[in-house]
Protein backbone atom coordinates (compact mmCIF):
# COMPACT_ATOMS: atom_id res chain seq x y z
CA UNK A 1 0.00 0.00 0.00
CA UNK A 2 2.97 2.34 -0.32
CA UNK A 3 1.16 4.09 -3.19
CA UNK A 4 1.30 7.76 -2.35
CA UNK A 5 2.34 8.07 1.29
CA UNK A 6 6.10 7.76 0.62
CA UNK A 7 5.82 10.58 -1.90
CA UNK A 8 4.85 12.93 0.91
CA UNK A 9 8.54 12.92 1.92
CA UNK A 10 8.97 16.00 -0.22
CA UNK A 11 5.39 17.19 0.14
CA UNK A 12 3.90 19.84 2.39
CA UNK A 13 3.63 17.64 5.49
CA UNK A 14 6.33 16.30 7.86
CA UNK A 15 6.86 12.62 6.95
CA UNK A 16 5.85 9.98 9.53
CA UNK A 17 8.80 8.55 11.43
CA UNK A 18 7.98 5.07 10.20
CA UNK A 19 8.06 6.14 6.56
CA UNK A 20 10.66 4.28 4.47
CA UNK A 21 13.25 6.65 3.10
CA UNK A 22 12.36 9.49 5.45
CA UNK A 23 14.14 8.31 8.57
CA UNK A 24 12.95 7.35 12.05
CA UNK A 25 11.55 4.19 13.55
CA UNK A 26 8.35 2.24 13.41
CA UNK A 27 7.49 2.55 17.08
CA UNK A 28 6.98 6.31 16.98
CA UNK A 29 4.73 6.70 13.97
CA UNK A 30 1.56 7.92 15.67
CA UNK A 31 2.50 11.56 16.37
CA UNK A 32 3.39 12.17 12.73
CA UNK A 33 0.28 10.66 11.19
CA UNK A 34 -1.65 12.82 13.65
CA UNK A 35 -0.06 15.89 12.07
CA UNK A 36 -1.25 14.76 8.64
CA UNK A 37 -4.75 14.21 10.03
CA UNK A 38 -4.66 17.78 11.37
CA UNK A 39 -3.68 19.02 7.92
CA UNK A 40 -6.66 17.23 6.41
CA UNK A 41 -8.88 18.79 9.05
CA UNK A 42 -7.79 22.21 7.84
CA UNK A 43 -9.43 21.37 4.50
CA UNK A 44 -12.54 20.05 6.23
CA UNK A 45 -14.29 23.40 6.41
CA UNK A 46 -17.61 21.82 7.44
CA UNK A 47 -15.99 19.81 10.23
CA UNK A 48 -17.77 16.61 9.20
CA UNK A 49 -14.69 14.38 9.42
CA UNK A 50 -15.46 13.03 5.96
CA UNK A 51 -14.42 13.79 2.40
CA UNK A 52 -15.95 12.67 -0.88
CA UNK A 53 -14.10 10.07 -2.93
CA UNK A 54 -13.71 12.42 -5.91
CA UNK A 55 -12.44 15.24 -3.69
CA UNK A 56 -10.00 12.92 -1.93
CA UNK A 57 -8.76 11.63 -5.28
CA UNK A 58 -8.01 15.18 -6.41
CA UNK A 59 -6.29 15.91 -3.11
CA UNK A 60 -4.08 12.83 -3.48
CA UNK A 61 -3.17 13.91 -7.02
CA UNK A 62 -2.25 17.34 -5.68
CA UNK A 63 -0.04 15.92 -2.94
CA UNK A 64 1.52 13.25 -5.18
CA UNK A 65 1.49 14.52 -8.78
CA UNK A 66 3.18 11.41 -10.15
CA UNK A 67 0.62 8.92 -8.85
CA UNK A 68 -1.31 6.89 -11.42
CA UNK A 69 -5.08 6.50 -11.47
CA UNK A 70 -4.68 2.73 -11.19
CA UNK A 71 -2.63 3.20 -8.01
CA UNK A 72 -5.36 5.33 -6.47
CA UNK A 73 -7.88 2.71 -7.53
CA UNK A 74 -5.89 -0.04 -5.82
CA UNK A 75 -5.71 2.06 -2.67
CA UNK A 76 -9.50 2.40 -2.51
CA UNK A 77 -10.01 -1.29 -3.35
CA UNK A 78 -7.69 -2.39 -0.52
CA UNK A 79 -9.39 0.00 1.90
CA UNK A 80 -12.82 -1.37 0.96
CA UNK A 81 -11.60 -4.94 1.48
CA UNK A 82 -10.59 -3.99 5.02
CA UNK A 83 -14.04 -2.58 5.73
CA UNK A 84 -13.38 1.16 5.30
CA UNK A 85 -15.90 3.46 3.63
CA UNK A 86 -14.61 4.61 0.25
CA UNK A 87 -17.46 6.81 -0.99
CA UNK A 88 -18.04 9.21 1.87
CA UNK A 89 -14.54 8.72 3.27
CA UNK A 90 -13.66 9.21 6.93
CA UNK A 91 -10.25 10.68 6.17
CA UNK A 92 -8.78 10.17 9.66
CA UNK A 93 -9.70 6.49 9.61
CA UNK A 94 -8.24 6.12 6.10
CA UNK A 95 -4.98 7.91 6.95
CA UNK A 96 -4.39 5.88 10.09
CA UNK A 97 -5.16 2.71 8.16
CA UNK A 98 -2.58 3.63 5.50
CA UNK A 99 0.09 4.37 8.10
CA UNK A 100 -0.62 1.25 10.15
CA UNK A 101 -0.75 -1.03 7.10
CA UNK A 102 2.49 0.35 5.69
CA UNK A 103 4.18 -0.26 9.03
CA UNK A 104 4.15 -3.95 8.13
CA UNK A 105 6.77 -3.33 5.48
CA UNK A 106 8.53 -0.27 6.87
CA UNK A 107 12.19 -0.27 5.93
CA UNK A 108 11.94 -3.40 3.77
CA UNK A 109 9.80 -2.47 0.80
CA UNK A 110 7.68 -5.60 1.34
CA UNK A 111 4.49 -4.29 2.89
CA UNK A 112 2.31 -3.73 -0.16
CA UNK A 113 0.31 -6.93 -0.04
CA UNK A 114 0.26 -7.52 3.72
CA UNK A 115 -3.29 -7.64 5.09
CA UNK A 116 -4.31 -5.23 7.83
CA UNK A 117 -5.45 -6.85 11.05
CA UNK A 118 -9.18 -7.11 11.63
CA UNK A 119 -9.17 -7.99 15.33
CA UNK A 120 -10.10 -4.63 16.80
CA UNK A 121 -8.83 -2.70 13.79
CA UNK A 122 -5.56 -2.74 11.91
CA UNK A 123 -3.35 -0.74 14.28
CA UNK A 124 -2.37 -3.20 17.01
CA UNK A 125 -1.93 -6.10 14.59
CA UNK A 126 0.18 -3.99 12.22
CA UNK A 127 2.20 -2.60 15.12
CA UNK A 128 2.82 -6.16 16.33
CA UNK A 129 4.03 -7.24 12.89
CA UNK A 130 6.28 -4.19 12.60
CA UNK A 131 7.68 -4.73 16.12
CA UNK A 132 8.46 -8.37 15.34
CA UNK A 133 10.08 -7.49 12.04
CA UNK A 134 12.18 -4.69 13.53
CA UNK A 135 13.26 -6.76 16.54
CA UNK A 136 14.31 -9.71 14.40
CA UNK A 137 16.36 -7.39 12.19
CA UNK A 138 18.16 -5.96 15.24
CA UNK A 139 19.38 -9.33 16.50
CA UNK A 140 22.07 -11.64 15.12
CA UNK A 141 20.91 -14.75 13.22
CA UNK A 142 21.50 -17.08 16.17
CA UNK A 143 19.08 -15.03 18.31
CA UNK A 144 16.28 -14.54 15.81
CA UNK A 145 14.43 -17.78 16.51
CA UNK A 146 14.25 -16.78 20.17
CA UNK A 147 12.94 -13.33 19.23
CA UNK A 148 10.15 -14.93 17.19
CA UNK A 149 9.39 -17.26 20.11
CA UNK A 150 9.12 -14.25 22.44
CA UNK A 151 6.67 -12.44 20.18
CA UNK A 152 4.68 -15.62 19.58
CA UNK A 153 4.18 -15.85 23.33
CA UNK A 154 3.07 -12.21 23.48
CA UNK A 155 0.63 -12.74 20.61
CA UNK A 156 -0.83 -15.92 22.08
CA UNK A 157 -1.41 -14.23 25.40
CA UNK A 158 -3.08 -11.18 23.86
CA UNK A 159 -5.35 -13.30 21.68
CA UNK A 160 -6.45 -15.60 24.47
CA UNK A 161 -9.99 -15.56 25.85
CA UNK A 162 -8.61 -15.12 29.36
CA UNK A 163 -6.78 -11.94 28.34
CA UNK A 164 -9.83 -10.50 26.59
CA UNK A 165 -12.12 -11.27 29.52
CA UNK A 166 -9.68 -9.78 32.03
CA UNK A 167 -9.38 -6.54 30.03
CA UNK A 168 -13.13 -6.22 29.51
CA UNK A 169 -14.34 -7.39 32.91
CA UNK A 170 -11.69 -5.86 35.12
CA UNK A 171 -9.69 -3.08 33.50
CA UNK A 172 -12.54 -1.65 31.43
CA UNK A 173 -14.89 -1.53 34.39
CA UNK A 174 -12.24 0.03 36.59
CA UNK A 175 -11.63 2.88 34.13
CA UNK A 176 -15.32 3.37 33.31
CA UNK A 177 -15.82 5.58 36.33
CA UNK A 178 -19.19 6.98 35.27
CA UNK A 179 -20.49 3.45 34.50
CA UNK A 180 -21.90 4.39 31.09
CA UNK A 181 -20.43 1.37 29.34
CA UNK A 182 -17.89 3.49 27.43
CA UNK A 183 -14.37 4.74 28.07
CA UNK A 184 -13.84 8.44 27.42
CA UNK A 185 -10.49 10.03 26.75
CA UNK A 186 -10.23 11.57 30.24
CA UNK A 187 -10.93 8.14 31.72
CA UNK A 188 -8.25 6.48 29.57
CA UNK A 189 -5.57 9.19 29.41
CA UNK A 190 -3.77 8.27 32.62
CA UNK A 191 -3.60 4.60 31.69
CA UNK A 192 -2.34 5.36 28.17
CA UNK A 193 0.26 7.76 29.49
CA UNK A 194 1.59 5.22 31.98
CA UNK A 195 1.88 2.53 29.29
CA UNK A 196 3.71 4.87 26.90
CA UNK A 197 6.01 6.02 29.70
CA UNK A 198 6.73 2.40 30.62
CA UNK A 199 7.70 1.61 27.01
CA UNK A 200 9.88 4.74 26.86
CA UNK A 201 11.63 3.89 30.12
CA UNK A 202 12.32 0.31 29.05
CA UNK A 203 13.66 1.39 25.66
CA UNK A 204 15.92 3.97 27.24
CA UNK A 205 14.17 6.93 25.67
CA UNK A 206 13.08 8.11 29.10
CA UNK A 207 11.04 11.05 27.81
CA UNK A 208 7.58 11.60 29.21
CA UNK A 209 5.02 10.97 26.44
CA UNK A 210 3.62 14.16 24.98
CA UNK A 211 -0.08 14.89 25.38
CA UNK A 212 -0.42 14.61 21.60
CA UNK A 213 0.96 11.04 21.70
CA UNK A 214 -1.53 10.04 24.39
CA UNK A 215 -4.39 11.59 22.44
CA UNK A 216 -3.24 10.02 19.17
CA UNK A 217 -3.21 6.54 20.71
CA UNK A 218 -6.77 7.00 21.93
CA UNK A 219 -8.06 8.54 18.68
CA UNK A 220 -6.52 5.76 16.60
CA UNK A 221 -8.87 3.31 18.35
CA UNK A 222 -11.96 5.51 18.12
CA UNK A 223 -13.17 4.77 14.57
CA UNK A 224 -16.37 6.77 14.97
CA UNK A 225 -14.44 9.78 16.29
CA UNK A 226 -17.05 10.04 19.04
CA UNK A 227 -14.59 10.38 21.90
CA UNK A 228 -15.70 7.08 23.43
CA UNK A 229 -14.38 3.51 23.24
CA UNK A 230 -16.53 0.44 23.64
CA UNK A 231 -15.17 -2.78 25.11
CA UNK A 232 -13.75 -4.14 21.85
CA UNK A 233 -12.13 -0.81 20.94
CA UNK A 234 -10.61 -0.53 24.40
CA UNK A 235 -9.31 -4.10 24.10
CA UNK A 236 -7.62 -3.15 20.82
CA UNK A 237 -6.06 -0.11 22.50
CA UNK A 238 -4.70 -2.22 25.36
CA UNK A 239 -3.27 -4.73 22.90
CA UNK A 240 -1.59 -1.90 20.99
CA UNK A 241 0.01 -0.55 24.16
CA UNK A 242 0.98 -4.08 25.21
CA UNK A 243 2.88 -4.52 21.95
CA UNK A 244 4.84 -1.31 22.53
CA UNK A 245 5.78 -2.38 26.06
CA UNK A 246 6.61 -5.94 24.96
CA UNK A 247 8.95 -4.71 22.24
CA UNK A 248 10.71 -2.36 24.68
CA UNK A 249 11.01 -5.16 27.28
CA UNK A 250 12.57 -7.67 24.86
CA UNK A 251 16.21 -6.87 25.79
CA UNK A 252 15.41 -7.75 29.41
CA UNK A 253 13.76 -11.09 28.60
CA UNK A 254 15.36 -14.37 29.55
CA UNK A 255 14.21 -15.73 26.20
CA UNK A 256 17.14 -14.19 24.35
CA UNK A 257 19.83 -14.58 27.02
Strand content: under 5%
Number of strands: 4
The topology string of helices and strands comes to HEHHEHHHHEHHEH
* Helix content, binned percent: 55-70%
Q: Give the class from helix and strand content and strand pairing.
A: mainly alpha
Mean pLDDT: 74
Spatial arrangement of strands, main beta sheet: 1-2
Structure write-up:
The protein is mainly α. It is 57% helix and 4% strand. The chain contains ten helices and four strands. A two-stranded antiparallel ribbon has the order 1-2. The longest helix is centred in the middle third of the chain and has 19 residues, at 141-159. The two termini are 37 Å apart.
Which helices and strands, and how do they pair?
Layout lengths: L29 H14 L6 E3 H11 L5 H13 L6 E3 H12 L19 H16 L3 H19 L1 H15 L7 E2 H19 L7 H9 L8 E2 L1 H19 L8
Antiparallel strand pairs: 1-2, 3-4
Keywords:
257 residues; mainly alpha; two-stranded antiparallel ribbon; disordered N terminus
In brief, what are we looking at here?
By secondary structure, the chain is mainly alpha-helical. Helix content is 57%, strand content 4%.
Amino acid sequence: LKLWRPKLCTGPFPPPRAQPGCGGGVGAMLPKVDEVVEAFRSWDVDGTGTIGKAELTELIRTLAPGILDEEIGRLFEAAAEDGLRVDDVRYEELLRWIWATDALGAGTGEGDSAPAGRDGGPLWDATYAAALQDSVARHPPEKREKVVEYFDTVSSRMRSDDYSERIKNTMFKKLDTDRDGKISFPEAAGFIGKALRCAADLSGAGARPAASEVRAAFDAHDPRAGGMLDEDEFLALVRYLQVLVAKAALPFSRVID
